[in-house]
Sequence to fold (152 residues):
Amino acid sequence: MHGRSLARWLERGTRPASAPREFAFATGGLQQGYVIFWRQWVREVLLPGEASSPGLVRTWFGDAEVETHRAELRERVYDRLASDPSTSATVPEEALNRIKQYESRWLKNTDRMRRALHSTGLSEAVKRDELDELVRLGYLGPDWIDRPAERR
Fold:
């Protein structure tokens, strides 16, 4: 759910007509969270205590107190171009504000996409104007709204 629909490419075998993204987003696989990539900056927001198994939580924290770590939030921003990108960086305030602005927009659109994709049709879960906006942004293919629910 990076903000670009691949429907046209998958259905017609042509390259999607999407502009390059200014930001790229990735979601966690084994742990809850996401990462935002922008130019030289990377922002991580992780919930390592929400891993898919207690063993993964133990490997992250080094103890057996899985439940105590359930809601621990780990946030950091680093310079991916630095000689040691593993260290946290001081990000210019303007850059951090811009990252957080895109982060907020992405989280909102991702939530709307989940509701749209899990609905069985046009319902109160996602209003028509929200679906139109997701199509305009490239999150959904242009013909998605008019498809029968069983083909979504």
